[in-house]
Amino acid sequence: MDEVQQRAERQLQALEGVHARLNELSVTETSDDGRVTVDVDVTGAMTGLTLLPGAGSGQPAALADLIVRTAVRAATRVFTERADIMAAFVADFAELAGTDAPGVSMEPNGDSVRPTLQEPQSEERA
């Protein structure tokens, strides 16, 4: 019983650790010209925007494009970092759960949880 409790405590610590890392995750990205800086959170949502004089060369469409391109780069980086954190967590958690044996997956694989595309069957009429 002590072993079960210890394993559960390690799993809980792993969950708390990944939760904390994800909550702290943010990315700052600066445009190539250095005049636009965008901050995003773990979801890719913009949390900060800094514009320096000359950003977009005084053209609203150019400024909008620069902001969006910089925000997309920031979101891409944060999603990559988030995926790396989650991949490491899944591997660690599988080990803690004792499911790292070959052929054992933490992914659901039953028919009830894996949707499949079923083509509609036409009824042949005589």
Automatic annotation (TrEMBL):
Gene3D superfamilies for this protein: Nucleoid-associated protein YbaB-like domain (3.30.1310.10)
InterPro entries per the UniProt record, alphabetical: YbaB-like_sf (IPR036894), YbaB/EbfC (IPR004401)
Record-linked Pfam families: YbaB_DNA_bd (PF02575)
Annotated TM spans: none
GO molecular function: DNA binding
Disordered: annotated span: 100-126
Protein known as: YbaB/EbfC DNA-binding family protein
Organism: Gordonia malaquae NBRC 108250
